[in-house]
Every structure is written in structure tokens, then in C-alpha cells.
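Moderator note: this is an archived Q&A kept for reference. The question asked for a predicted structure of one protein chain; the sequence and the answer are reproduced below.
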Amino acid sequence: MDLFEMITVIIVILGLAFTALAAVVRIVRGPTILDRMIASDVLLTTLMLAIGSNMALRGNTTGIAVMVAIAATAVLATIVVARYVRRKASLNDQVSPDRGTEHV
């Protein structure tokens, strides 16, 4: 591995580590479920990028199945959370409608 490849690998590792750390901080701090969902999507995407970077560095494709499984899980989780938030918002609208405000 020459110097350019070594520097590139170090930059990629630092970038992925920073992104993962920022996503974990957002998952812990929140404050809403949507913030946490977006952060978990970022974390899963970072994991897929790390696996893809590893495959590119080693020159093999053994991690493709894992990447597909992670992507499918992320999409399914996003859909579930979006439906939950929408249902919760519609229930809140039914229970406590706006008082005296008019929608044009």
C-alpha cells in the first residue's frame, strides 16, 4: 500500500468515525422520534459505507448481502416510524381539534 492509499484510508476512517459518533449523539439526545430515526438512518448508511469501503480496499464482494440486509432494515424501520408518527398526529387532531383557528 503506497502513501496515497494510506492517507486516503485514514481520511475515510476518520470521516466514517466522525459521522457515526455524530449520529449516536443525535440518537441519544433526540429530542423527537423523527430526529432519532434520521440519526439511525445516518448510522446505518455509515455502516454500509464502511462495509463498502472495506470491500473496495480488499477487492472482494463478500459484504454485498450484509449491505442489502442493512438497507432493507433501514427502509422498513423508516416506513414504520413514519406511519407511527402520522397515526399519532391524526389521533391528536381528533382528540383535541384547533380551538377557534380558521384554516383558509
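Archived answer notes: The chain has a mean pLDDT of 89.
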